[in-house]
Give the backbone structure.
Amino acid sequence: MADRELEVGAIVQLTGLEIGLMVADASYRIEQLLQLNEGAQLYRVRHDEEPFDRIVSERDIRDF
């Protein structure tokens, strides 16, 4: 993906995760942008039906 930065509050779907580790066809909301020292962009995302947040990389996100 090109250098894009999604914004907090954006609704996205996740890809690249093993089946069974996420809610099928669920929408996740970006809660926070995180950045590693190497410049890699990570996102803290949340689904309302999960009691936890997920940290995912940009390659695991498909936006609408």
In short: The longest strand covers residues 28-35. Residues 23 and 62 are 15 Å apart (CA to CA). The mean pLDDT is 80. Strands lie at 11-14, 28-35, 41-46, 53-57, 61-63.
